[in-house]
Amino acid sequence: MSEKKAKSIFIEGPISAGFIGDSIAKHQSKTDIGAHAIFLGQVRADEKEGRSVTHIDYTAYEEMALQKVHAIRESAFAAYPLSCMHIYHSLGTVRSGEISLFVFVSAAHRDAAFTALREIVEKIKADVPIWGKEMFGESDGTWKVNQ
User: Fold this and answer.
1) Angle, CA of 144, 21 and 85, to the nearest 5°
2) In 10 A of CB 4, how many CB atoms?
3) Under CATH, what is the fold of the domain 10-142?
4) Where are the domains of the chain?
5) What is the pTM of this model?
């Protein structure tokens, strides 16, 4: 990783619609952008063994996660003509129906934005040390497998 300090991607609790909307609004003055692609990861109320997931408790190896995300960012900017990219992930409790991952990429053209977004999200899920424990109440849970 370069000497530049990696920007934190972590937000405590769910990522709010207001935060997402503000992020989008900040790009309206950037007239070289023709396409935005957005991925929102939402906690599902999956049924497992007759019980519903009420929330996920997220934890991370933060220092390594920031290094991995920095490498993913650098790789995407090298591979695609992107104008900008924002990545945010929740830590702590995120209830079913709430947003836990927000990835936002912008480019002059949609093909670069769509293609880069999918690759970035897949790399985050595969390579970044963030774990979620699916909870079925306040104290009963199982570790989630990324899919």
Assistant:
1) 65
2) 7
3) Aldehyde Oxidoreductase; domain 3 (3.90.1170)
4) 10-142
5) 0.90
